Amino acid sequence: MSRQVTMSDVAEFFGKSMDWPFTQDEPARITRARIKRKNGEHVVGVILSRDDDYLGLFQWYAVDVPESRRLAMYEFMARVNYPRHVTTCQMGEQGGIGWRTVLFTKDSVFVPSQLRYALELLVSTADGYLPVVFSILYGNKSPMQALDDFAQEQKTFATGPAAASGGRREVAVVNSTIDLSEITADIASKSALGESQPPQLWMLMMDEPQARMLATEFAAPAESTFAASPVIINLPDGTAVVHFTLLHAEHIRQLVDTITNAVGVRCSGFTVHLPESDHSYVLQKISNLGEGIRVGDTLSFS
User: Fold this and answer.
1) I need a surface site. Which of 28, 187, 232, 283 has the fewest CB within 10 A?
2) In a domain, 1, yes or no
3) Are 172 and 284 found together in one domain?
4) Is residue 57 located within the same domain as residue 108?
């Protein structure tokens, strides 16, 4: 049975699940934490909407953009936000800059693993772009030059079909304790409540390098519209999951064909959430990618 997410739920999540020291502003319905990542400090928080329809997830860098660099930062945001479907970069009136995303919660079961995944993706994205922000603010680089330099330095940008077609696909990398059973349980709970979920594919790889190869080499070119940027989820046992989200249900076979026709791709397990009409086709194709593949609880919709 669904229920409203409360401030106590978020407090327990920050304190126990994430082990973050936090503060709460009850009237504003905001929970905040200050955390450190590889490239710097971040203020991370969750806002409960007044009508309990969604959780607003936010991140702020520990720097403000001076007036003299705000035009350049607006250009950076326009360039970096254009291909994004999940997280976006925003700047406040006083020059604060950070990233935001939303989890819709109306008539939903509160699933802590879903919130963990969304926050980890948000922080990973923000921390990854911090060097770009600094190079624009303090290195006197143009946004285009800063992003081009960043893309050249990152191994998580596509070097295969996407690069050959003139586009780059960013691949987010997050660390998580989510497994295939939790993923399907989360989707099943939402489907039972009538929530619409996009077609999705999770592939369990033997290790992170294999996951990186799959995500970067065989993701769709930047100008393609059949899939969002893939996400690599590193698991505690050393394995990794590559998560693809389809933007249109009719393109599931195109994505699966791209993956299964690639040389050297092997997986040890997978979970899918896709239209009933594509179910047998996808299961047969992916099952050919390895011996003894573990199939998660696959979910279909009409």
Assistant:
1) 28
2) no
3) yes
4) yes
pLDDT tier for residue 119 given thresholds of 50, 70 and 90? confident
Closest C-alpha to 13, from 173, 89, 106, 120: 120
Secondary structure element (H or E) that encloses residue 26, with its range: none
One-letter amino acid of 182 = E
The answer to whether 71 and 83 have CB atoms below 8 angstroms apart is no
Measured CA angle at 177 (ends 172, 181), to 5 deg: 105
Residues 144 and 180 occupy one common structural domain: no
pLDDT over 90 (residue 58)? yes
* Half-sphere exposure in the Cβ direction for 147 (13 Å, CA): 16
> Residue 39: pLDDT above 70?
yes
Backbone angles phi, psi at 120, to 5 degrees: -65, -40
- Least confident segment among 37-41, 140-144, 160-164: 160-164
Mean pLDDT of 151-169: 46
Higher pLDDT, 153 or 286: 286
Domain with 13, as residue range(s), is: 7-153
Domain end: 133, 153, 173, which one? Answer: 153
Q: Note the pLDDT tens digit of each residue in 187-227.
A: 666 666 666 667 788 888 777 777 777 776 555 454 345 56
